[in-house]
Give the backbone structure.
Amino acid sequence: MIRTRFAPSPTGFLHIGGVRTALFSWAFARKHQGKFVLRIEDTDLERSTAESLKAILDGMHWVGLDYDEGPFYQTKRFDRYAEVLQQLITAGHAYYDFTSKEELEAMRQEAEAKGEHFWYDRRWRPDLGKSLPSVPDGIQPVVRFKMPLQGETTWNDLVKGKISIANQDLDDLIIARADGTPTYNFCVVVDDYDMGITHVIRGDDHVNNTPKQINILLAMGAVVPEYAHLPMILNEKGAKMSKRRDAVSVVEYDQQGILPEALLNYLARLGWGHGDDEFFTMTQFIEWFDLKDVSPSASRFDHEKLLWLNAQHIKASDNNRLATLILPRLQQYGVSKVEQPALNEVIALVKDRAQDLNQLADECLYFYKKLTPTEQELAKHWDADTAARMQRFAALLQQLSQWDAESIHALFAPFCEAEKIKMGKLGMPLRLAVCGTGKTPSIDQVLALMGKEEVLQRLQHS
Ligand code: GLU
């Protein structure tokens, strides 16, 4: 049984890179009929916040990455960490270190003076035949993990290939602080073990933690999971994404009117591919996904491509669902009633024109509220004769017994002929007079859908 997890720390928003990590973990579990676990790594009490936790849970819900187990909270598992800690100490895999702050500082300065990397000198490590210093008074010890001193730690990363680290380059890391609280790498290991995680899929900023975690797992007698480290997502300029310059939080995509399935489709394509397929559903993604097709190098965010995909997903989306999604946006413009014409019918007419939900709302707006044409539009399409001409056309519309696009369309050519004008001299002014904007689909269809009464009333006041 494949078991994967997403393990965010609630110290900020739900990052777009985090969503892609979650997506790949989720898809891998779904593909293999496994389980996907959500774990909240909240042991950093100073940086973890309730708002951030909410942002993560809301974000996961919004994108639709459903988890089978969790959320599990590390802060609720301190007893378990203490238990494993004791087991490791008893088995000789971890030891108390009574080094004082001053001694550590002296070690650091000595290394600095020699221009060397600072290492804890393992003075409290109980190796065979070695005598330890006598336990000082008044010092609360930390607990350190006894790293192997020789050999290598190797794993076959499912994205990056074989990675080997010489054990002599690994420190005897602290797994419990002086106040007894467990440290990050230790909690992750205990959790991955207890939660039966078979595949750790995470960002490649964790590659350096992996050899440490593998050694602790081995000491615990655990089966070491597979690891897959995903490369970073860079911004369009090829730099690390930053909160100031780039949309990094998933909420920003919601605000930009991106559909969650479009965002997932886009993120799936970032660093993974299936032939030339660009537009696909999550069902297809799950079917096609394989970690061996994930690229080991970083990928660049391309906003234009995201918008293009979003437009495809808007076209494919159910109109009633789209209506629910854009209603709050229309309400912000002061529109409260969307029955006449029915919003889903309006959406059916205009959805091809929108790349995001904000644009879609804009495309629907003039059906419920006449807009004010811009100066440029008026200058270009409205002259001294136009108002009277619109009234003459209104009179023809008034007489129509059948109100549909075809019947309206049939009026255009004879009217233009009688007025001795080109079609453009009717279409654009008519749009401005009825909708208040020149940017609409075919005007006969717009008028048909808007309804006779509303159209005539708007023409009267144009
Ligand atoms: N909590 C870590 C993070 O947010 C993830 C740890 C992991 O996936 O092992 O970066």
About this structure: The mean pLDDT is 96.
